[in-house]
């Protein structure tokens, strides 16, 4: 028995290992490590390169077809100005109203889609009967582009708010449900067998095998789903809406003010990135086992 | 071969129980494309014995494991555990799988206590104490809070053994448990597992395709034919326990190995469909499959 324990206690004469730093010490350690790698410099170089290319096209050379598009200098000076020439900057309350309205719609749509999609996907993946019952309809509705739902949404729901949220929810729901279902189907049969001989009841198998086993796929699905939620939200806001970043972009175009249009686009990019990062963060928090398994593979 | 194991009375508590397979058959596929995988299989596992099932690859060993574990049911015949017919999976028969089946989302410790906790058996403190004891015993005392992905292959197998043993099964079913381990940890695991088995001799059905491993571990070998699996030979291993590696060098073992390999070679040749002819010695065994 003791012979087997050797691989466990390997090493022994190495110098005392450094303690794991805590709090601020950890932050410093991470910064030092980060600055020592090529990552931050490559990132800065990349961003600088693309901004330069953008400047060259619109302002440096102002090539034909690009002269009407605001370049980075025009854009930033208006974006950061207290008195923007084209009406939208970080000092105008309207700008935050647009961001807030879009974010609120995304949160509602994303939570609704998750609350409906995850349970449905789990059941579809787990129970043959539920899948037989729902899958044909699901697969028929799923490929319908969200834009094709716009007229129906406007007919079905009153006002500006509900049709937009409905469209974003719908897109998000399909991505979440499908990924969750695939997640359950990806779970190795041996875990169900192990749970079976350990004497689990069906309910226990659901909570201890189906749910945690599908988790990595669910969170992949949620990341896709928040992306398509933004996509369909903006499309919907362009058609029907009174506020929101999509509305800002289209109304700026209609009013021939190009700077707010690009401000709206870039803001969408940042907010969308931030929302995916939150989903990723929550996923990693909930799935420490998965994070560690990936780390063992050097990822 | 001579019978060496001392007969042991059926003793449920210590996991010494008797398994009988009587004319067990199982096939798959539609009527017009039947594939018989197990046919009229009859053998017995004596209480406290370690029985190794050996057979050419693809002969239906895993199907037998599934039948005894209760994941699958025979089409005819019956499987009895202490005289009781097996109807489904249960905690009285624990399976240690080929590939690790530890739940990757649970820590080593949570994996071990999973069964008793789910069934709500025993006080939580007692279950925890037993889990700690078993994990220390399998040399994973420092790895209780690690996830399976953070353990080496050998550690995963030991964790799985602990997860099975905490349920005090009547029968331990091991389906090629050491396959995929490297050449260094495999003999270590074999020896470790032997010491564990010899401590209380819990009845064990051990499936392997390695004849040396089978002889080293087993009280009896059940050698299966090529598909459909039938019993080709039963060989008693007269080596004393505790087993030691040096026993593998005795002339007895060489003789057993020679016999077993000859049978296995004949059977393996059949899976080639008799299309190749390797040496005159085995020519008789090579016959075409239907």
**Count of runs of 4 or more consecutive helical residues of chain B:** 7
Strand content of chain A: under 5%
CATH class of the largest domain in chain A: Mainly Alpha
Low-confidence region ranges of chain A:
1-12
* The CATH homologous superfamily of the largest domain in chain B: P-loop containing nucleotide triphosphate hydrolases
C-alpha-based Rg of chain B, rounded: 20 Å
CATH architecture heading of the largest domain in chain B: 3-Layer(aba) Sandwich
* Integer-rounded radius of gyration of chain A: 25 Å
- Helix content bin of chain B: 25-40%
> What's the domain count of chain A?
2
GO molecular function (chain B): ATP binding
Keywords (chain B): ATP-binding, Nucleotide-binding, Transport
Pfam family, one (chain B): ABC_tran
InterPro entries (chain B): AAA+_ATPase, ABC_transporter-like_ATP-bd, ABC_transporter-like_CS, ABC_transporter_ATP-bind, P-loop_NTPase
Description of the structure:
- The complex is a heterodimer of chains A (299) and B (290).
- Chain A has 299 residues and is mainly alpha-helical.
- Chain A is 73% helix and 0% strand.
- Chain A has helices spanning 24-36, 39-60, 72-79, 93-126, 128-141, 150-156, 161-185, 189-197, 202-239, 245-254, 258-286, 288-296.
- In chain A, helix 4 (93-126) runs parallel beside helix 7 (161-185), helix 4 crosses helix 10 and helix 9 (202-239) packs antiparallel against helix 11.
- Chain A is flat and about 70 Å long.
- Chain B is an alpha/beta fold and 290 residues long.
- Chain B has two domains: 13-92 and 169-249, 3-Layer(aba) Sandwich (Rossmann fold); 106-168, no CATH class.
- In chain B, the strands form two sheets. Chain B has a six-stranded mixed β-sheet, with helices on both faces. Chain B has a four-stranded antiparallel β-sheet with strand order 2-1-4-5, with helices on one face.
- The model of chain B is unreliable at 1-10 and 279-290 (pLDDT under 50).
- At the A-B interface, helix 8, helix 9 and helix 12 of A face strand 6, helix 2, helix 4 and helix 5 of B.
- Chain B: Residues 19-251 form the ABC transporter domain.
- Chain B: InterPro entries: AAA+_ATPase, ABC_transporter-like_ATP-bd, ABC_transporter-like_CS, ABC_transporter_ATP-bind, P-loop_NTPase.
- Chain B: Belongs to the ABC transporter superfamily.
